[in-house]
Structure to design on (83 residues):
């Protein structure tokens, strides 16, 4: 088994109203050192061992998990997960 740590974020230049709301709330709480906040998604996937796991992750991201027009994604594959 392998564990996939998947991070999906908005591309630079795409407006992030949720990130802006977080930044403003942090400023209200006194954390004025925060100059920008961007909000994304984190997912964990446990998958069976497969030689094509990275190709499958790419397909999953482009077909369903991320919107390639406005989002970027990165992932880390952890080996040898016991489930």
């Amino acid at each position: 088994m392998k564990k996939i740590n998947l991070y999906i974020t908005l591309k630079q230049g795409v407006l992030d109203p949720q990130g802006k709301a977080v930044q403003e709330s942090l400023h209200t709480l006194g954390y004025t050192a925060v100059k920008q906040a961007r909000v994304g998604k984190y997912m964990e996937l446990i998958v069976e061992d497969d030689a094509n796991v990275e190709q499958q992750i790419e397909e999953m991201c482009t077909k369903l998990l991320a919107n390639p027009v406005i989002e970027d994604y990165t992932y880390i594959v952890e080996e040898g997960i016991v489930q």
User: Anything to note?
Assistant: The two ends are 7 Å apart (CA to CA). The longest strand covers residues 2-10. Strands lie at 2-10, 41-47, 71-78.
